[in-house]
Amino acid sequence: MGETESTTSRHANTEGEIGLEKILEELREFRKENNEKLADIKEDLNSTSKRIEEAENHIMEAEEQIQQTGAALVELLKVQTQLESKLTDQEGKSRWDNIQIYGVPEGSENGSSTITFIEKLLKDGLDLDPSTELQIQKAHRALAPKPTDSARPRSIVVKFLSFKTKEDILGQMW
């Protein structure tokens, strides 16, 4: 029996060694696969990190542009406010040379220009010398729809070339 035991023992050792080698080989293969998968994961992670970094840079650039645009908008709004103020002032100053005449019936001009009609109206109504130069730059009816016959007539706006002429005419009227 000694021989059989020895053969069985050798056979068992050989089988055990083969089994261990097979296990070791499988472990090596498993480790190799895990290392490859880990390398793939690291590569994906690096790629994702780069994309995130690029996205963060784009976001920072966009935020800077938004801030610059906001600052420019604030400046433009300030300029707009200043220009509106200047425009209001200029409109007011341009009206300094104007008078408005009320109560002149529609169509009184009888085909003549409004300037010619107003010159005659003022010279006749204020007993001015016919040679007096009134320096009327422009004259027109108020910018509104033409009223019906029974409605109040539109006023006439007269713009003189100078404030002094306007004041002289107003002085004559009162």
UniProtKB/TrEMBL annotation:
Keywords: Coiled coil. It comes from the Eukaryota. Residues 20-72 form a coiled coil. InterPro entries: Transposase_22. PANTHER family: L1 TRANSPOSABLE ELEMENT-RELATED (PTHR11505). This is L1 transposable element RRM domain-containing protein. It comes from Cirrhinus mrigala.
